[in-house]
Amino acid sequence: MTIKPVNQKAWLLVLPVLVCVAFSAIVPLMTVVNYSVQDIISPERRVFVGTEWFAAVMRDEELHGALARQLGFSLAVLLVELPLGVLLALSMPATGWKASAVLVIVSLSLLIPWNVVGTIWQIFGRADIGLMGAALQGLGIDYSYTGNATHAWFTVLLMDVWHWTPLVALLGYAGLRSIPDAYYQAARIDGASKFAVFRYIQLPKMRGVLMIAVLLRFMDSFMIYTEPFVLTGGGPGNATTFLSQYLTQKAVGQFDLGPAAAFSLIYFLIILLLCFMLYNWMQRVGTEEKEEPHA
User: Fold this and answer.
1) Is the peptide bond before 236 cis (omega within 30 degrees of 0)?
2) Which residues cross the membrane (predicted)?
């Protein structure tokens, strides 16, 4: 019996993908790693400094403040957008022309570019021409997202909730539509309450898409830049200066390429570690709930 040789030419089909990945990810990453261990005095003169920039970045108090603001913002985003998106998905019609119309309306904010979203809310929050700013001023609230740090932070949070909650709602809606009608029929026969249907039928079936929603929203909120930059410019003070804007200030504003490269690697590792921890925690919670006997 002769064994035919395996045709390896199929790997040639993957070659364009590998080339694209190399130029779009691997080469830039290696460039950043190279910059992070050097002191770039001039384009012609560079000095190897090892881990000096990493140590300097880790001691930076401004970085600690930006990290605390970023963690607080990302946590607030998840706490608000996840239940709000699930509630919106549950209230959306399942069939008919109303379902199509609602899906289009809900998706509208996702189609707006990020810089335009910041501009919209910049106008929306102004007391002289903006609807929200004028309404709050009319209620006697001295609202100013440019002069009050708390107002600025909550405005950025509200802007993100308006922009990205529909993504959670659409993912949750897709999970709900995948549930067979037999589950609901069995629940009606057993006389299950609406909360019991949600707890034991809808929520378990949505767990997979909600996990994706949590990871997507956490990663995106942890890298937010354009919207708060357009809306507040990171101010007032450093109230809305998150990690991405701090990195941009280092790399572009101060042209500290070495510290900026070191910080970008630390930034990447922080996102990777937090997403890994969040994913494992959600997997463990899901496993424990599956093992619990239903009442």
Assistant:
1) yes
2) 71-90, 102-124, 152-176, 208-226, 260-281
